[in-house]
Specification:
The protein is an alpha+beta fold. It has helices at 10-19, 52-63, 110-212, and strands spanning 68-75, 78-85, 90-97, 100-107. The chain is 53% helix and 14% strand. The model is unreliable at 1-48 (pLDDT under 50).
């Protein structure tokens, strides 16, 4: 058991109670403070708050450091504390939600205080199930939203890459077709050029063969012209 000082102990319990966010949909109910009444198990939140006098009395004891924290349990925004007042050998068991004390039971019996505390602690666990499920589901939804956004960005990036690749493929196909047409034209031109070259080579070979022949080749003589017959003389007048 830890004795509360001005910087620790019970003040930590009160400060922790004050810092938990109060749920808007939660309601607070009152249960009379009694030293012999057994705690009732609650499955739904009561409609009214603890009487102000009981709350103020407990706060005053906490603020003046007259209580020692024995046990404290937290479940989401719900909590239960077992507190001891050494000067009067008295025990306080508090069930709180958010910033508000929900139920406070005072007793001089440690066994009864332990039983009430266990009941309150179990109630905090039951009551917090919806909060915890909501917290988990909210976190799961936010995570899914983030994953959707990231995957959407990834999808857009892949779509842009695919579009660029398709555009490049079309451009390459056009270049390939132009290259095939150019190759076909060059093939035809090369065939014609090769034919001309072969003809020229044949002419050169013929001329070289003629020039390399040592025999003198003379042109054939022209045929002789036939003699012209004489014309008769014209008579004198």
């Amino acid at each position: 058991m830890k004795v509360m000082t001005r910087s620790a102990g019970m003040r930590r319990v009160w400060l922790a109670v004050g810092t938990v966010v109060l749920m808007n949909t939660s309601a607070c109910a009152s249960t009379p403070v009694a030293s012999s009444a057994a705690p009732a198990t609650a499955t739904a939140e009561p409609a009214d708050k603890v009487p102000a006098s009981t709350v103020e009395a407990l706060r005053q004891l906490i603020d003046t450091h007259q209580l020692t924290e024995v046990r404290t349990t937290y479940n989401s925004t719900y909590g239960a504390s077992l507190l001891f007042q050494p000067e009067k050998l008295s025990y306080y068991v508090a069930l709180f939600h958010g910033k508000e004390f929900w139920r406070v039971i005072q007793t001089d019996s440690f066994e009864q205080a332990e039983g009430v505390y266990r009941t309150f602690a179990q109630q905090t666990q039951t009551l917090a199930e919806v909060d915890i499920d909501t917290m988990r589901l909210d976190a799961g939804k936010k995570y899914a939203d983030r994953m959707i956004a990231l995957n959407q960005q990834r999808l857009q990036s892949l779509q842009q890459d695919a579009s660029r690749q398709q555009q490049q493929a079309r451009e390459v196909a056009q270049l390939q077709e132009q290259a095939r047409q150019q190759a076909a034209s060059l093939t035809a031109q090369l065939h014609d050029t090769t034919s001309q070259l072969d003809a020229m080579k044949q002419q050169i070979h013929s001329l070289e063969t003629m020039q390399d022949n040592p025999n003198l080749a003379l042109p054939a003589p022209a045929p002789a012209a036939a003699p012209t017959p004489p014309q008769p003389a014209s008579p004198s007048p």
